Amino acid sequence: MISVLAQERLLGAALGSIFTGMVVFEQRRSIYKSISDTQPQLNSQFQQVREPIFGKEARSELARMWNKGVDQAFGPAIQYLSSHGW
Fold this sequence. Notes:
By secondary structure, the protein is mostly helical. It is 85% helix and 0% strand.
C-alpha cells in the first residue's frame, strides 16, 4: 500500500503539474493573441516598403562582376574538364 506521505507527494506533484500546464497554456495563448493582433500592422508596413535596395544598373553591374569572378575562379577547371571529355 502507498503510505500517506507518498500519497501527499503524488497529489502535490499532480496538482503542481496541472497548475504549471495551465500557466503555460495561458501564456502561449496571450503570446499568440498578441502576435495575431500585430500581424496586420506588420503586413501594411512591409507593403509600403517595396523599393529595391539597389537600382537596375547596380544590379546588372553586380551580376556582371559575379559572372566575371566565377569565370576567373572556375575557368581553368572548366577548360581542363572540357579538354578531357567532360
